């Protein structure tokens, strides 16, 4: 989507995608990543998700990317943290103990800016991007994180009945995006209660993406 679309959503607080608690699928399936405390977990297009507070409470270091400065100001306020900020061109780095968030276009980020990434948790990024951007995003994410282990959550439904975002992404599409770098393990497919925006049935898929270079 165009940047203006998301900036408008945040400025108008039209954030139905923001959950009032940590994502239950994260809580249930995060252990499959088998990470040690202190591991650096990257959340692309993170918003102000409460998943971040859950990860911090578990002793992990959170690295995030987000387009909206409104979301990140709200995030740090909710965490009762005052970040230090650094400018990298048109990207702003918000930093506090165990958390680093980069605000700007995710395609302007580099692996050098992010530092070491031990795992990726993508609940909000792939599903937010239209089809013509997803392949570019997937390739960029692999490069950003040096192909780090990934926990991916996405929706599948009849896209002709409901306009995204979140967009419908099938297991076949996920395979097309990531098969060059990962072995994909579909851990769960579960019905979305109430369907997609109450207009059609939908399922949620949970994938573990295991780097080919460590299989």
Structural notes for this entry:
The chain is globular, with a radius of gyration of 16 Å. A 9-stranded mixed beta sheet has the order 3-4-5-2-1-6-7-9-8, sandwiched between helices. The chain has 215 residues and is of the alpha/beta class. It has a single domain (3-214), classed as Vaccinia Virus protein VP39 (Rossmann fold, 3-Layer(aba) Sandwich), CATH 3.40.50.150. The protein is built from 7 helices and 9 strands; from the N terminus they run ααβαβαβββαβαβαββ.
Write a brief caption for the model.
By secondary structure, this protein is of the alpha/beta class. The chain has helices at residues 3-11, 24-29, 51-57, 69-78, 111-114, 131-145, 171-178, and strands spanning 40-44, 61-66, 84-88, 91-96, 99-103, 119-122, 149-157, 182-191, 202-211.
